[in-house]
Design a protein that fits this description.
Elements: H1 2-39, H2 46-59, H3 61-82, H4 85-91, H5 96-138, E1 157-164, E2 171-178, E3 187-198, E4 204-217, E5 231-244, H6 267-291, H7 296-306, H8 326-331, H9 335-401, H10 408-432, H11 438-442, H12 444-461, H13 469-495
Antiparallel strand pairs: 1-2, 2-3, 3-4, 4-5
Helix pairs in contact: 1-3, 1-5, 2-5, 3-5, 3-9, 3-10, 5-9, 6-7, 6-9, 9-10, 9-12, 10-12
Length: 501
């Protein structure tokens, strides 16, 4: 048995590591396509891009582990079934469960590794990746002058060009407003053509202009003639504008800004953060309730009911000390008194309704923020346990379909993983919007796929022909479709009477 288990383990580890790195690469390419617009034109060093891809590769590991386990298990048992090795093992009296036993241990180990990565490594890499991505997004791009559009990317200048030669990068019909030294539109430069370049240290912009005119208004020396200013016009054949620019060089932001975000915390930190946010949430709900304009006695009762661990609670019980007929009282007053009472009641109701609508939006947003932390806590467990689930889905499915390689297993794995992702996203959305309980929504995919895995394992162990067409033909015949199936078989025989395939 030891040799058999070693053979099964060796047959599994090769496809697992191969599919794992393939999945990481594919998911990493998806990341590049997603953020390609934020990376192009930034002038980033290769070291920065390599660091970003390194951190991003850790971000795809929670999805790479389950998908690699699904692919590898289908490929392994599909290959064993295709080469009749499973048949030989079963004929020797070895059950499928005993064949799967060493791989069950490996699946449990991989699940533990996935949880360790999600809880201990991923928060750190997410923090570094988020900080680096924000730093890249906020880095000022290389100046791009668009034709016919004013650009104020350069500090103190507003520039518009008429056209640009894409081959030579020559700019034509330049119009430049000088706003340095708090000027408005007192200095304007018009040039026939020019060049724009950034120095290698990315600290200065050099704009060389040709065949232009500079129009400027000089400040008046006579304070009594403010509206009358000297006008100056200078023609030039060549002029150079050198401007110091900021934010062209890459600078990293402080990691402490994003340290308390839900993706940057481990299990223990998520619990502490959730408790803190819940305390603030209930305190804010109580403050909002206290601001609603209602009866003072009821307001005090609400305060007592919502206060936690307050020794000053009075436990007020609201009892009616007297009753009266409001209709008779209201009908007995003058019309102007009725109108005033109705107006006051209407204004009070409108104010309460406006406050409730305002508070509802703020409270809902705070609750969604709390849900993100709770969802992240559950996600660390669900994605890790998904590795174990996908083994029990892939291994028996590979034994049933009996196809190895990267053909059929890849198609089946992608379809199953898409189904799992859709079910998982449905549960997470329901939990995030408080439609379902948090535990139910986050573990919904587990509740669906784990029984499927157990059922497939049972069907594979009992050699049930669930992938055979004869099985479904019999089922359709029992449902009353026997005549239709007979006609289809007759048509196939008539089309191929010799029986050649």
């Amino acid at each position: 048995m030891k040799r058999l288990h070693l053979y099964v383990i060796k047959s599994f580890l090769g496809p697992f590591f191969m599919t794992f790195f393939i999945v990481v690469f594919v998911l990493l390419m998806q990341f590049l396509w997603r953020y390609i617009g934020d990376l192009v034109g930034k002038g980033l060093d290769l070291s920065v891009l390599g660091e970003m891809l390194f951190y991003a590769s850790f971000g795809v590991l929670p999805f790479a582990f389950p998908l690699a386990m699904l692919l590898a298990s289908i490929m392994t048992f599909g290959s064993l079934g295709e080469n009749y090795e499973l048949v030989a093992m079963k004929s020797a009296g070895i059950s499928l469960f005993r064949i799967m036993k060493p791989l069950i241990v490996i699946a449990a180990v991989v699940s533990g590794v996935a949880f360790y990565v999600a809880n201990n490594i991923l928060p750190t890499t997410n923090l570094k990746f988020t900080t680096l991505m924000v730093s890249v997004k906020q880095q000022r791009p290389e100046l791009v002058l668009q034709e016919g559009v004013f650009t104020n990317e350069i500090d103190g200048y507003n520039i518009k060009i008429g056209s640009k030669d894409k081959k030579t990068n020559v700019l034509y019909d330049l119009l430049i407003y000088d706003h340095t030294q708090n000027k408005t539109n007192e200095s304007v430069t018009v040039a026939d053509s020019g060049y724009l370049k950034i120095t290698e240290d990315k600290k200065y912009m050099v704009l060389t202009l040709y065949n232009g005119v500079n129009y400027s208004e000089e400040p008046s020396k006579d304070r009594g003639q403010i509206n009358n200013r000297p006008f100056r016009r200078d023609k030039f054949d060549e002029q150079t504008i050198r401007v110091r620019v900021n934010n062209f060089e890459f600078s990293r932001r402080d990691e402490g800004i994003y340290r308390n975000m839900f993706r940057m915390l481990n299990i223990r930190q998520l619990v502490l953060m959730t408790d803190t946010l819940n305390e603030r949430y209930y305190e804010q709900v109580r403050n909002y309730l206290m601001q609603i304009d209602i009866n003072p006695t009821i307001t005090r009762r609400i305060f007592d009911l919502t206060a936690k661990h307050d020794s000053l609670k009075q436990n007020i019980e609201i009892k009616t000390d007297s009753t009266f007929n409001f209709d008779s009282l209201f009908n007995g007053v003058d019309k102007w008194v009725k109108a005033e009472i109705a107006m006051l009641a209407l204004d009070r109701s409108r104010n309460n309704m406006q406050n409730l609508n305002l508070y509802q939006g703020q409270i809902t947003e705070r609750k969604r923020n709390i849900n993100k932390y709770e969802m992240e806590w559950h996600r660390k467990f669900t994605l890790s346990f998904a590795v174990f689930i996908f083994f029990f889905v892939g291994a028996p499915l590979g034994a049933i379909i009996r196809k190895g390689g990267l053909g059929m297993p890849v198609v089946v794995s992608i379809l199953l993983f898409i189904a799992y992702y859709i079910v998982s996203m449905t549960g997470e959305k329901s939990a995030r919007e408080d439609v379902w309980q948090m535990f139910t929504g986050m573990w919904f995919s587990t509740f669906v796929f784990f029984p499927v895995g157990l059922w497939l394992t049972y069907m594979a162990i009992t050699d049930s022909a669930i992938m055979s067409t004869e099985t479904y033909t019999k089922i359709l015949g029992k449902l009353g479709f026997g005549s239709l199936i007979g006609k289809i078989k007759t048509r196939k025989i008539n089309e191929n009477p010799s029986g050649n395939k």
